[in-house]
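Quick one: sequence plus thiamine diphosphate SMILES, need structure tokens.
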Amino acid sequence: MGKALSGIKTRNYLDKSGKALGKIPKFAEDRSTLKDLYRLMNLIRIFDKKVVSLQRTGKMGTFATSLGQEGVSVGIGHALQKDDIFVPYYRDQGILYQRRVKLIEIMQYWGGDERGSRYVYNREDLPISIPIATQLVHAVGVAYAVKLRKQERAVLSTCGDGGTSEGDFYIALNGAGTWNLPLVFVINNNQWAISVPRAIQTKADTLAQKAVAAGIDSIQVDGNDVIAVRQVVSEALAKARSGGGPTLIEALTYRLGDHTTADDASRYVDKSDLDKAWALEPIIRLQSYLTKKRILSKKEEKQILETCKEEVDQAVAEYLALSPQPPEAIFDYQYANMPSALQEQKDELNYSLHPY
Ligand SMILES: Cc1ncc(C[n+]2csc(CCOP(=O)(O)OP(=O)(O)O)c2C)c(N)n1
Ligand SMILES: [Mg+2]
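Reply:
Sure thing.
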């Protein structure tokens, strides 16, 4: 590890056992909001598990779960306001869902059906980005447009810990700082970039401190404490909307599953590290708090899980009932006006599929 940089703060409200460390934020005094956060984290976990089963049975393409990181995506999604703009990476289903992107649309995307990125209820958020950190630069452009139009909106974009080693990450930070943009970056630091551990990803002691050179504010947050994520992101968004400029947030969490369905993490993740991380995961953390505070009864918890399961099952049934896209659809979504070279390839494919 390199030198620790003083002044980078870490925020949490719940300790490891789910006990409040002090005063909780105002929004978390509302019992139904807390139950909603609990419901959302469970919904995403159930959804992720189901999509993996679909992949294993040949009904889905490669998929990235957010197992263990639900506190990060659910906290962010809950903090965003309708008029804000979200520029995602590929492990953000907990945010997308709260942006009114339908579960079926998320499944269509991972199933190779490009129509999934044409969100029915939300046309301004950007589609999922797979090329690492490129979305951060797109977010700078979007935030620049928001600023030019003098709109009171914030833009939020996410990336992983590995993403912070990309040139695009530094370019985006520099642009956000230089132009004092209404932009919030959140790093989902799940401690792994496929099989590369955080410890050898960078010599920097924290990822948050990478903002210092760009002159922008940064903070770490306990990503397994959904209350803290919700609060820290809300504060950064409010600052962005009111002209206070950008923030970099490093959310500390752990990837409890494989990188994607194309990975087998048991080949490189130490079992005892994984066991330790399971003890800190965000759903149990909030559940302990809610139980201690008598906010959630066993009966309510059971009901919540059942409703989540029903919602996921229904979305999956709809997804499975869709007729598959024809092979030539792979040409259809890149350009508004298809270049002639691509048209030729499409014609060739059409001919080989339907020669007579
Ligand atoms: C520009 C680019 N290089 C390489 C890849 C291959 N790749 C996909 S995911 C990944 C690791 C990313 O790790 P991290 O940023 O920590 O995000 P996480 O998947 O852990 O959420 C890599 C190298 C890619 N998608 N894009
Ligand atoms: Mg990572």
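The chain has a mean pLDDT of 96. The radius of gyration is 21 Å.
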